[in-house]
Amino acid sequence: MEQTYGAVMIIIFGLVGLFFSWWRAKLRMTAKQEQAIIETFPDCIDLFIAALRAGYSPAQGINFLGQHAPGILRPNFIAASRRIDEGERFIDAIRLLHSEIGAVSQSMCDVLISGDRLGIPVENLLFQLGNEARLNRRRRAETEARQLPIRLSLPLVMCILPSFVILIIVPTIAGTLSQLHISV
């Protein structure tokens, strides 16, 4: 009876542990995907500006991004381009694009919606937005570079320092103690 109870408890705890490890891995993958989107979105803004400067309309620019955007964002732009081609209003397609990509696309989508509603040129606004996005990406990279020594301090302390003590300090102390002649 007690062995079955113990086996059942082990199985239950194993399943709970498996669930939490799966959940943590899923959260980690989601965070990595969001980080990749944040890192690549300034490139999408620059590509969209290039398309506008080449004479494309904003709808054609979305189609251009569907063909040339970084891989993680390409399916979203393809879906938005398909919606526009199927007759959905540009504003509605951009709103759905924003909901698919997330908060990082808020400014670009707002500029495109305002440009479509008011008929204002969006190229200069997107250029400023692209500059701001690149500066934010650079700041994040600098912050990560400043955090690198902190992350590397644990391996330094746990691996290199003990080997230094074992290879340098211990033989020195052993040699010194062997040369000492203690008389009582």
From TrEMBL:
Q: Which residues cross the membrane?
A: 6-23, 148-174
Residue span(s) of domain Type II secretion system protein GspF: 45-169
Subcellular location(s): the record lists: Cell membrane
The membrane-topology field of this record reads: Multi-pass membrane protein
Q: Mind telling me which GO cellular component terms the entry cites?
A: plasma membrane
Going by the UniProt record, its keywords in alphabetical order are: Cell membrane, Membrane, Transmembrane, Transmembrane helix
For this entry, the protein name equals Unannotated protein
